[in-house]
Amino acid sequence: MASVAATLAILLSACDDTTDTLGNSLTDNSADRFELITDTFNVSTRSVVASKVLSRSPYSYIGHIKDPETGSYVSASYTTQFSIVENFQGQPLFPQEDSIRSLSERDNKVKADSCVLRIYLNNSVGDSLNPMRLTVYEMGRPVEEGRQYYTDFDPAREGLLRNDGKAIRRNKVYTPLDLNLSDSVRQLVIDKTNMQSISIRLDSAYTDRDGVEYDNYGTYVMRKYYECPEYFENSYNFVHNVCPGFYFKSTDGSGVMSEVYLTELQIYYRYESNDSTYNALTYLSGTEEVMQTTTLDTDPATTRALADSTTCTYMKTPAGIFTEVELPVEDIKHEHPNDTISAARIVFQRINNEETDSPFGEPTQVLMIPKDSVQHFFENKDLPDSKTSYIATYSSAFNTYTFNNISGLISEMYNAKMSGSASADWNKVLLIPVTVTSSSNSSTGSSTITNVSNEMALKSTRLVGGPQNHRRPINIYVFYNKSAKNK
Questions:
Q1: Has residue 234 got a pLDDT over 50?
Q2: Contacts of 136 (CB under 8 A, 6+ apart)
Q3: Fewest CB within 10 angstroms: 61, 70, 119, 297, which?
Q4: CA-to-CA dists, residue 378 to 149, 278, 432, 482, angstroms
């Protein structure tokens, strides 16, 4: 531990840091005069394995890829339900029954001309030309609300898949980059989202759980709509009475992992209006408003071996490794018993990848959270409050993650220790890669964080640190206000 006098050069040493809140009281002529001093303390870190994380993310994932750091494979599968938006923009989900011109030859009743499950891909990691295979399973029961689902959740093991011999089960071979499209067409807006997509057709005969046979799955949905409109009043009724959802499992192929932006159930049919017949499409989307889960299959042994490294620490996702940080709270407080902490700043230096062909990028945003608060934070959908939880964004210019002021956390930890309410991990925090969703205010230009979830994409980085760190020590720089009357 080394103590030095504070200077403006120290305070403003990092170009990517914000110091607006430091020493504000110094400009108040009516207040006691303060001297700003600083002290530097060493921080210890280590890697800890996160074998599973909460499966709540804006996106789902599908694929199978080799992790070059561990030599093992990561496989991702997902479930989704479909939401109901009745009378969307003033229009019902389907037209009046007597206007439908797509009719079944067997009973002259309403039918769907075609039905497709379409998976829209946001992006892919790995070789997008690799042939992959997924299998679609019809759910027999829905994934229910009111329970926390982690990435080790297996709908088959839970008995949620329909298994009466009549269930939908489709295999689909695909490449994330569609080779059936010409280069020129691929550059055009080929669908409403301008994304690569995977199509699984559900056009063959379908038998529901009551033993009733339909021309295809779309016909089943349409007839239920006209027979039981109450089933379509909201997503809950739909999921529990018509379509519990589907499970998309990665079953073959290797070398690519894809981020699923959206999954849709698309139903095509014809209807008549004003003496003209039109082709129509009704689609139901898997969105955040209904249950979606991502299941990960990883090798805990190889992940644990990587985490055992002592010369650095890791942040690795989706369910991999976090960095644990032990903060010298008692030293920070006891070395300056009469001084007030103004700010506490800590910087984590990233170590560049040795594997130049690694498909993993570095985490963009990292959450610092007390180790004993992690489960509560994610399960309760908490947001960082800049008092006991903080977000840092990766700086490519400095190759660092910087937390500018965690003084509130230091005080909270110390107070808990002194009051006897501290846990065994009272002075430890975890650095967790996260996905942050924000909303923007166009009038002020500001943004507000609306959701924080575990990063589910393939990300990995090493940080300077570890029990046998041979690089520059990790330091926390603490700024104190020393009152003139305490001098």
A1: yes
A2: 117, 168, 169, 170, 171, 172, 200, 246, 247, 248, 249
A3: 297
A4: 11, 47, 11, 38
Cα within 13 Å of Cα(86), Cβ side? 11
Residue 36's pLDDT band (boundaries 50, 70, 90)? confident
Q: State the alpha helices, DSSP H only, in 98-215.
A: 183-186
Q: Is the pLDDT of residue 196 over 90?
A: no
- The secondary element (H helix, E strand) that includes residue 454 is strand 447-454
For 292-305, write each residue's pLDDT tens digit: 999 999 988 999 99
d(CA 128, CA 181): 14
404 token code pair: 């500018």
Distance CA 260, CA 286 (A): 10
Q: Is 107 exposed, middle or buried (0-12, 13-18, 19+ CB in 10 A)?
A: exposed
DSSP state of 364: S
Helix, strand, or coil (residue 465):
coil
The secondary structure of residue 176, as a DSSP letter, is: S
Residues 355-386 as b/e (b if ≥16 CB within 10 A, e otherwise) read eeeebbebbbbbbbbbbbbbeebbeeeeebee
Rounded CA separation 343/23 (Å): 9
The span from the CA of 34 to the CA of 25, in Å, is 8
Band of residue 484 on the pLDDT scale cut at 50, 70, 90? low
Q: Nearest CA to 203 among 114, 122, 331?
A: 114
